[in-house]
Write a structure and sequence with these properties.
By secondary structure, this protein is of the alpha+beta class. The protein has 2 domains: 90 residues; 125 residues, Beta Barrel (Porin). The chain is 38% helix and 44% strand. It contains 1 helix and 8 strands, in the order αββββββββ. The chain has an 8-stranded antiparallel barrel with strand order 1-2-3-4-5-6-7-8. The chain is elongated, with a radius of gyration of 41 Å. The protein starts with a helix and ends in a 14-residue tail after the last strand.
């Protein structure tokens, strides 16, 4: 009888093991999957936090950069206004008038063009001059009034501004190049080697090639005094 009970006990234990094993395995698998899901959720949340921080930092940096650029623009404008007002009160050191001839390239074709200009120059230290000028641009049979500002430094001249054609079409103009004294007293050769106009409405850019001369008058000298060259 004891042997029989022992056999029954062993069989019952084996059945319990077989019955409970799938449940234990399923429980273990569920635990692993839950842990994996939790880890993935944590990783995803961390990624979102990192991305959010980066986005906030980028927006702050962009806002700071825009603010800094606005401050720089305000400072430049204020400095230019102060310099312009100071120079205007002081009066011009030189007046000048000049004329260049050359070509305007429109649609791949060259048209005869010229620029007549004149204005004032203020000596702002060393070899630096601030220039205010007005003029007239002629391309073929079309004419335009010019309003220019810029500087001369060493042998480099840079003028920029705006104009409008006879029909009212507005444009921007940039005249960059070089100048140098000639054998004639107070007469300088000038070449606008990097020049163009750009129409405001269409955006069309027209290259200019202009070469000519400029005559200067030193306004700091008495009227009866002998003129001198402007190099300082």
């Amino acid at each position: 009888m004891t042997k029989l009970n022992t056999k029954y006990t062993q069989a019952l234990a084996l059945l319990l093991v077989i019955t409970l094993a799938p449940a234990s395995i399923a429980f273990a698998q569920s635990s692993v999957e839950a842990e994996t899901t939790t880890e993935n959720t944590v990783d995803a949340n961390n990624d979102i936090k990192v991305k959010t921080r980066a986005d906030i930092k980028a927006r702050i940096t962009d806002a700071q950069e825009k603010r800094i650029n606005l401050i720089k623009d305000e400072v430049r404008t204020n400095v230019r206004d102060v310099i312009s007002n100071t120079l205007a009160d002081r009066g011009a050191d030189l007046t000048f008038r000049g004329h260049t001839d050359g070509w305007a390239i429109v649609g791949g074709k060259a048209f005869e063009s010229s620029i007549a200009f004149g204005g004032d120059a203020h000596h702002v230290g060393g070899g630096n001059w601030k220039i205010d000028s007005t003029g007239e641009l002629t391309v073929a049979d079309r004419h335009a009034k010019l309003d220019l500002t810029g500087f001369a430094r060493g042998n480099v001249i840079h003028l920029q501004g705006s104009g409008s054609l006879d029909n009212g079409e507005a444009f921007r103009i940039v005249l960059r190049g070089h100048f140098a004294p000639t054998d004639d007293r107070n007469v300088y050769a000038v070449a606008f080697t990097h020049a163009s106009i750009q129409y405001m409405n269409s955006g069309l850019r027209v290259p200019l090639m202009q070469v000519g001369s400029v005559t200067i008058i030193d306004t700091t000298l008495p009227v009866s005094a002998e003129p001198v060259t402007a190099q300082q």
